[in-house]
Amino acid sequence: MNQNNKEFSASERSTRDLFHIFSSTENLSDELKSFLSEAEEPDVTSYLKRLLAKYDKNVDDILEKTFISRSYAYQILSGTRNPTDDVVCLLALGIGFDIDETQTLLKYAKRAPLYPKYKRDAIIINCISNKTGVLECDRILKENGLKPLT
């Protein structure tokens, strides 16, 4: 490990740096072993709870604004169920997450990020960015012959 690599622990390094380091080694280097011992999986439940606190929202807000069932919402918040990509988008639209928060929540839920070259995703990105509500976003999706979120 060179001097520059000692400045930051693996968990503090950029994803690009980690990808380069881990893909260029033939075996489990000390740095990779260190990273594996200290790394924590991104947690969708914790991140969602932080976002809800940031926006001063609670489960009742989720139920009212996203049309997600009570049991599903509680399963997501308890960590027993992982939200689908559509549910993450419903949460973003209903609670008012920005696009970066939405993409991060999708990543933590192990879902594909929204991709602007897909028509449906482009509309959803626009709706999230413009704080369009769930019903209006569904109307726009249907108007364009695309599957609604609800």
Description of the molecule:
The protein is mainly α. It has two domains: 3-38, no CATH class; 44-143, 434 Repressor (Amino-terminal Domain) (Orthogonal Bundle). It has nine helices and no strands. Helix 3 packs antiparallel against helix 7 (99-108), helix 4 (59-66) packs across helix 6 (85-95) and helix 6 runs antiparallel to helix 7 (99-108). The protein is globular. The termini are far apart. The relative contact order is 0.10.
Look at the structure and give the mean pLDDT: 87
Shape label:
globular
Q: What is the number of helical segments per DSSP (H or I, 4+ residues)?
A: 9
Largest sheet composition: none
CATH topology of the largest domain: 434 Repressor (Amino-terminal Domain)
Tell me the number of strands.
0
CATH architectural grouping of the largest domain: Orthogonal Bundle
Order of helices and strands: HHHHHHHHH
Domain module tally: 2
Quick one: CATH class of the largest domain?
Mainly Alpha
Proportion of strand residues: under 5%
Low-confidence parts lasting 5 or more residues at pLDDT below 50? 1-8
Based on secondary structure, the structural category is mainly alpha
Helix fraction bin: 55-70%
Q: Output the radius of gyration.
A: 19 Å
How far from one another are the termini? 51 Å
